[in-house]
Structure formats: structure tokens, C-alpha cells
From TrEMBL:
It comes from Sulfurospirillum barnesii (strain ATCC 700032 / DSM 10660 / SES-3). GO terms for biological process: nucleoside metabolic process. Pfam families: PNP_UDP_1. Transmembrane segments: none annotated. Gene3D superfamilies: Nucleoside phosphorylase domain. This is Nucleoside phosphorylase. It comes from the Bacteria. GO terms for molecular function: catalytic activity. The lineage of its organism: Bacteria, Pseudomonadati, Campylobacterota, Epsilonproteobacteria, Campylobacterales. Residues 38-96 form the Nucleoside phosphorylase domain.
Length: 178
């Protein structure tokens, strides 16, 4: 039996529930599944929470793409920043220059990076590269990252993460197709 995919306009991907919560509220999404991934749906918007890391992201995205056909996909989440002058909570787009959101380069790493010595990008995360590699080329893809740390060995609180993502939505919601 062939699975039927539903056409939607936008797929949003986060790694963490704390990143997803303000987006779920903002777009009035409802929970459709908790297994194998947290999946939230609106009329034209779907959000999937993968868990951290490239393997989780790949599996979650392939699962979402087996259910939905989006026109646009957005990865939104936190990232470390090598530039200590950039304030925590600052939003960057890592895929498009010239938008209303400032551009910064980003590289993905399997583990948290605590030494900027070998980093050649402004931002570091764990999922962006896999997100872009997993999506079919016909889907317009945006990677948006909110600065959460300056490569210190400190995990940001869920409250801070939620607040930063929540404050960033007004800057990037125009790229969500409804």
C-alpha cells in the first residue's frame, strides 16, 4: 500500500521542544503525534521536533517528508557564536543573504564546540547541514539560528531558549507560507 502525502505550504523543523513551544503557540498548531517524533499541525504548517544531532534530524525530516509535501522548509534553532560581541538572542539566516534577517555562516558539528580555533564560520550548530542535505532540491529551504552561547560549556535554560525563539518569530514569520 502506498502512503499518500499531504500537500502543505511550510514544514518547520526544530531540534528541541523548547525551540518548538513558542512556534506551536504562535501558529496555533496542534499535536498530531508524539512517536516516532513530536509532530504538530496547522492547516498549512507542520512542525517536527527531531531531537539533537544530525542522525535524529535526518530521520525526523525523512519521516515528515513521507507524510507531507511542503513548498518551504525552515530549520529554526539555537546556535553557538564565535563572535563574542553578538548578543545572545540575535537571529541570523544562514542560507539567504539580503533578507530582513542578517546573514551569518554556519557549520554543523556532531558535538558541542567549545574551542573556536578550528571553526571557520560565525555560527555552529548540530543540525543545519543535515537539514539542507536531506531536503529535496525543489523545496525552498531556510536555516535560521538564534545565538544561544559563545562556545562556553554552559547549556542555556529552556526558558531562555523559548524566549529567544519566541522573540525571533516576528523577524522570520514572513517566510512561512500559509
Amino acid at each position: 500500500m502506498m502512503m499518500c502525502t499531504r500537500k502543505i505550504t511550510t514544514l518547520i523543523h526544530t531540534a528541541l521542544v523548547a525551540e518548538a513551544k513558542p512556534i506551536i503557540g504562535h501558529f496555533s498548531l496542534t499535536c498530531k503525534a508524539k512517536q516516532p517524533f513530536n509532530l504538530y499541525e496547522g492547516e498549512q504548517i507542520v512542525l517536527i521536533v527531531s531531537g539533537m544531532g544530525s542522525q535524529n534530524s535526518k530521520e525526523a525530516l525523512l519521516y515528515a517528508l513521507s507524510l507531507y509535501e511542503p513548498c518551504v522548509a525552515i530549520n529554526i534553532g539555537i546556535a553557538g557564536c564565535v563572535d563574542k560581541t553578538v548578543l545572545k538572542g540575535t537571529l541570523f539566516c544562514t542560507t539567504h543573504e539580503g533578507l530582513s534577517v542578517p546573514f551569518a555562516s554556519c557549520s554543523s558539528h556532531e558535538k558541542a564546540v567549545e574551542n573556536a580555533l578550528h571553526v571557520k564560520t560565525t555560527l555552529v550548530d548540530m543540525e543545519a547541514d543535515t537539514f539542507l542535505q536531506t531536503l529535496p532540491k525543489n523545496i525552498e529551504a531556510y536555516v535560521l539560528k538564534v545565538v544561544s552561547d559563545h562556545l562556553e560549556d554552559v547549556i542555556p535554560s529552556k526558558t531562555d531558549v523559548g524566549n529567544w525563539i519566541g522573540k525571533s518569530i516576528k523577524q522570520w514569520e514572513k517566510y512561512v507560507r500559509r
